[in-house]
Amino acid sequence: MHSPDPGPTTPWQPVDAAGAARLLAASPVRWWLSGGAALDRWLGRAIRPRVNTDVSVVAADLGALVTALPAGYSAWAPAGEDEALVPFAEAPEDADLQPVLVHDDARGAWVLQIDAEDGAPRAWVYKRDPRLQLPWDRAVLDLDGIPTGAPEVQLVWKALRPRPDDDIDKDAVLPELSDEARAWYERAILSIHPHSTWSIHVRSPFAPAKASWNRGRR
Questions:
Q1: Fold of 17-161
Q2: pLDDT in tens, 69-80
């Protein structure tokens, strides 16, 4: 009996960080853990339960990353209508091919989400606003051999419309950032997402010294 094509109701059985690395080991292009998976790995513990595991890749490299998936896994992309998904290779050329979902065909479950981001040869570029950039060695960290998105970058992604779960992530990660990373994050929030609820602690007119880059040396 032919099993139905995966879709929005297909369950998730996400791989962990090491599993993602094994799954993408044959990839010839740069990829990195992103979202909550990146924050958990950087912090060294799970902040909260995660529904899925995310990795990111520069949009121009998305096809090469998908092609390198091992046998037994298939990639599916939005068809552009409702929540319909089609095999990645059959997706319309004008479709927004993300997120791409990786399906373990034997288990009948989603195991990985691939997000397309922007980048140049020398720098990561924020897809929502190209003014925000970081050299690759600061945007993507090597944590015991697994490329991992820098925590300050992941927080900026979450800052646009933070959900209660995102607040939990921020509260766990922000106090652990280095002075340099925290200053970059605060500047990014003020310049790129000034209306975010997360910007309040940075720009408060009643406590301007809360911004790390606005503290005088004593």
A1: Beta Polymerase; domain 2 (3.30.460)
A2: 999 999 999 876
